[in-house]
Amino acid sequence: MDKFIIEGGRQLAGEVEIQSAKNAVLPLLAASILTDERVIIHKCPRIMDVLNMIQILNELGCRTDFDGETLIIDSADAANHEIPSALAKELRSSVFMLGSVIARFGRARIAYPGGCDIGLRPVDLHLKGLKSLNVNIAEEGGYINCNCGKLIGADILLDCPSVGATENIILAAVKGEGRTLIRNAAKEPEICDLQSFLNKMGAKISGAGTSTVSIEGVRRLHGVEYTPIPDRIEAGTFLIAVAMCGGEAEICRAAADNIAALIHKLREISCKITVKNDKIYIKNGGTRRSLRMIETMPYPGFPTDLQAPVTALACISEGSTVIVENLFETRYKHVPELIRMGADITVRGRAAFVRGVPRLHGADVVAGDLRGGAALTLAAISAEGMSSVTDLSHIDRGYSGFEYKLASLGAKIRRIRV
Ligand code: UD1
What we know:
Blueprint: E1 2-7, E2 12-17, H1 22-31, E3 38-41, H2 48-59, E4 63-67, E5 70-74, E6 82-83, H3 85-90, H4 97-105, E7 107-111, H5 124-132, E8 136-140, E9 143-147, E10 155-157, H6 163-173, E11 179-183, H7 189-200, E12 204-206, E13 212-216, E14 224-226, H8 232-245, E15 247-252, H9 260-268, E16 272-276, E17 279-284, E18 292-295, H10 307-315, E19 320-324, H11 334-340, E20 344-348, E21 351-355, E22 364-366, H12 370-382, E23 386-390, H13 393-396, H14 402-408, E24 412-417
Parallel strand pairs: 2-15, 3-14, 6-7, 10-11, 18-19, 22-23
Antiparallel strand pairs: 1-23, 1-24, 3-5, 4-5, 7-9, 8-9, 11-13, 12-13, 15-17, 16-17, 19-21, 20-21
Helix pairs in contact: 1-2, 1-7, 4-6, 5-6, 8-10, 8-12, 10-12
Bound molecules: uridine-diphosphate-N-acetylglucosamine (UD1).
Residues 23, 26, 92-93, 120-126, 160, 162-165, 186, 190, 304-305, 327-328 line the site of uridine-diphosphate-N-acetylglucosamine.
């Protein structure tokens, strides 16, 4: 098991380039089996979630070639419709394969998905949506079995704007007969990216980024060459790192519009932020006023995936901050670890009450999930003294070369194998 050894307390300076968005790339990989022609994805991040998804594609019979940052997927010979439980449990996004596997083979069998343990994370909306498209679904022995004669377009209203359910329904409806409408759809930028990718393959989708997505089914999709959008959560993580450590940095290949909620908050606490094309420049002289109140919301609200890093920031900001986590039930696993570093936090249900302290001190902490692990790493590089962050498998799921990027900004961080 790997761990980071960190000597905290250094200001940051320099520039980092942002990887393509994990949450954009994963559904694109699921979409790649909708065609039997070649799909080429440029700037594909080498993160564990992507590597696991590639393994799933291989399991289905695709040929994949991941050279440098370019991933080529050839699913001409794909013939298998079953995703084995060992792989599905590694990765929640394996559930996105349902829609596209059904669209390709008329059936699918998948074990209940895994992913970060941050709450219940049901898939009822995915299944309800697929049923509306004429898919028969039977659940038995931890597996979801789907069968479908013909996918038929439908008018679907989601009970809540689930990102994954919106994407899964798009992935099935794209090859259905007639038109599908998804109302109360999620509006995340990654859904717009999926629409652009599929339309480039010949699909007829409109409305992504609004609460109604319209999909006109087509018979055939063709190959595509594509570069996904930059990762807004990675960009946000580095912005928060600079806010916590002080200093200045240029975050390159970033989409500032997609993290407006965070940028707004960082300006409020006295970070100087300027945006030019795809670069975000941030400077913080060491003052951090109170964040006051942060409530996670579906896009364009404050993203739940930045809740843990921003909680770490609140720990060393002036005054008190109230954080409310509205999306996932148990997304405060980083809190006891932050407390070990000297933070003053009380959690009651979905709310965390943070009273700022001047600085955190180093400690040996354990990453319990992906974004919580990133938050602890930021806390450690800003803290006084030595820290270790254990169980990097979580962080490796979503950040490529996290420690190298932080080190290039001047943080003292290295990985050791224990
Ligand atoms: C995606 C992101 C994840 C992010 C989350 C919210 C990917 C790979 N993951 O996860 O990083 O934290 O969006 O922005 O893109 N829900 C149901 N039933 C369902 C599906 C969801 O009740 O069938 C609920 C969930 O429990 C949760 C809420 O809807 O409370 C939002 O979940 P959802 O948007 O589906 O998140 P994911 O797609 O799993």
